[in-house]
Amino acid sequence: MLDGVMLLWFVLTAAALLFVAIDIRTTPESPVLKWGFVLLTAYTGVIGAFLYVLGCREPLPGLHERYVAARWRQTLGSTMHCVAGDGVGILAGAVLSSVFGLVGLVEVVVEYILGFAFGWTIFQALFMRDMVGGSYLRSLRSTFVAELLSMNLLMAGMVPTVMALKSRIPFAADPASPRFWFVMSMGLLVGFIFAYPMNWWLVAHHLKHGMMTVRPAVAHTGAHAGMDAAPHAAMSMGSGEPPWPSIPVMTLLSFLALATGVVIAFLLRAT
Description:
Blueprint: H1 2-23, H2 31-44, H3 46-55, H4 64-67, H5 71-99, H6 104-126, H7 136-168, H8 178-204, H9 220-227, H10 229-236, H11 247-270
Helix pairs in contact: 1-2, 1-3, 2-3, 2-5, 5-6, 5-7, 5-8, 6-7, 7-8, 7-11
């Protein structure tokens, strides 16, 4: 039964990934978020494709700006960006842990470090540095807190899911087995759900960007509507009233959520 479910999952994922990779080329979104949706679909299959269509795909020509302005779509873009980038490092950490025989808390730490490092230094700071004037160091500073809070919630949901499934599904810890990739997909999907509320708070307080609209500047009159989207997002980040709850409080809550998720993971593993 499980093998049949996994086969269906992988077939649907391949179809969904092909659709998103082809269709998103004409969507007036920033390149990094386009790659983010492709990666999210690779992780979450038809669910990622559904989120792309519902949250980012332009319904009619010229409507993308208004379409993605909704807060829940902005938060979707923020969460997707987090999971897409962090997921690359997390998967690399899971594979390396399996190869070197790392288990338990050590495996969690390796996945956390690699996931945070890739998500923060590459997907956030490097790819989005133009939003803060092109300075990589400035981008690192401005994205650190948002990446940390989002990553903590992602791991809080992913770790117990993966550990519970690995302890119950034979060969799920072996990267050479399709079961490993199925389990990691489920973990990242649950992590996405857990990270969404934190990203809502981050977007609401201008600590993280969401969806953007980037159109080719084919004419002077058309350039203003399309190419201004990213600068507007950059100017809004970190501005406005002080967030409530405060950043230190939310940081503490995020680490408490992460610690709770790890404890639950080991309790589930022991049962």
